[in-house]
Amino acid sequence: MSVVHQLSPGWLLDHLSFINNINYQLHQHHEPCCSKNEPTSSVHIDSLQMDSLISLGTSATFIAFDSTTKPDNENRGNCEIFIQKYVFRSELFNVTKPYITPAVHKECRQRKEKEDPMDGVKEESRISIIGKKRKRCVVFNQGELDAMEYHTKIRGLILDGSSELIQEGLKSGFLHPLSENWDKCSEPITLPLDTCNLSELCAMAKHLPSLNEMELQALQLMGEDVSVTEQDLFSRVVENNSSFTKMITLMGQKYLVPPKSSFLLSDISCMHPLLNCRKTYDVIVIDPPWQNKSVKRSNRYSYLSPLQIKQIPIPKLAAPNCLVITWVTNRQKHLRFVKEELYPSWSVEIVAEWHWVKITSSGEFVFPLDSPHKKPYEGLILGRVREKTAVPLRNEDVKVLPIPDHKLIVSVPCTLHSHKPPLAVLL
């Protein structure tokens, strides 16, 4: 189960289990060959791992985690069907130690500065050129003061709620205390050199000739789709309506598309293919590329301005009573923008504010809770699209369940950048 524990403060989640429960099974048809009884070696597709292949002769082959075999009843003719099952690489969730330990954090703070949040002043010690120690006071800016005030309000909620869930995780064995032997032998996780970068593909799609005047039909992935090109997949809705996973190739990288799913690979400025489908959605989750200093320094991806985010056509995509969920950084400027500008412009009424608390597999916060730089939690704002017309009496058969406020999502984060925990199992 993806939800390991559910208590009054919130949920302890197993993100890895959620991904693997999607059941990435790839069906491939092959002509019989004399070497079919030889198992293949395991391969990696970015973050996904394929189990070794088990042959059943000319009838079928099946990959299972328990190394058992299973016939394929749908197999017809002399064709051989290979059913390959992929699982996510578990080491990408192997976060055993905090990124910054509380001891190191405390030592740095004691050495560098003494802070007084009440007065809004931080006192720093510096050594001058002539060797004399001098002190200077630096006034906190308004953003820092707002962040400290916000943290003070939710600190107890984060600490008490997550501690309750972590204790349950330790009791059940889902979380494990970090032993000294494991601590010494643990090695840093190294990602493959060919890790995919969807942001580069979206940037490439942005520079393709404009298709605004064309209404391309949604592309249905049929069979193995060996004829599908990169140009067919850019800025166009691609659907996999089958019960099995489909594999596509983009710029030499292989991607798995889960069953009964669809996607639009596009820059945010090219949303018309999604609008042309004339579909509305009951839940919309948004993870905007917020502007911040680390993004500017790393140049990892392009960020969106507040105006660009407001131009996302949520009102046209949202079904009645649609639940809109937006991931927000801990910067108070962004939080106020979502609450005071973004949601009102979309006619979305705020119903709840939740927090994702990131922990290690031993139950520690990945960052010290009171770190002035990076916090071990992120926020998400939940809102509902308001009714366009006032309805005096609602149909009793149509009930909109209330969304509980101040819930915590506690989980071990993925080491890949910006992988958020699953919300479908909670909603």
Word description of this protein:
A hairpin with a 2-residue loop joins β1 and β2. The chain is globular and about 70 Å long. The protein has helices spanning 15-21, 102-112, 142-172, 180-185, 198-206, 230-233, 272-276, 293-298, 306-310, 314-317, 332-345, and strands spanning 3-7, 10-13, 24-30, 44-45, 48-50, 61-62, 80-88, 113-116, 121-127, 133-139, 219-220, 237-240, 246-250, 253-257, 261-264, 281-286, 318-328, 348-358, 377-385, 408-411. Strands 1-2-20-18-19-17-16 form a seven-stranded mixed sheet. With 427 residues, it is of the alpha/beta class.
Provide key terms for this protein.
single chain; 427 residues; alpha/beta; seven-stranded mixed beta sheet; five-stranded mixed beta sheet; 26% strand
Short description:
The chain has eleven helices and 20 strands. With 427 residues, it is of the alpha/beta class.
Beta strand %: 25-35%
Average pLDDT taken over every residue: 77
Can you count the beta strands? Answer: 20
Largest sheet: 7 strands, mixed
Based on CA inertia axes, which overall geometry fits?
A: globular
Oligomer: single chain
Secondary structure class reads alpha/beta
Rg result = 25 Å
In helices, the fraction of residues equals 10-25%
Spans of 5+ residues with little confidence (pLDDT < 50)?
Answer: 34-44, 51-75, 115-130
Please tally the helical runs, counting DSSP H or I stretches of 4 or more residues: 11
* Strand line-up in the sheet with most strands: 1-2-20-18-19-17-16
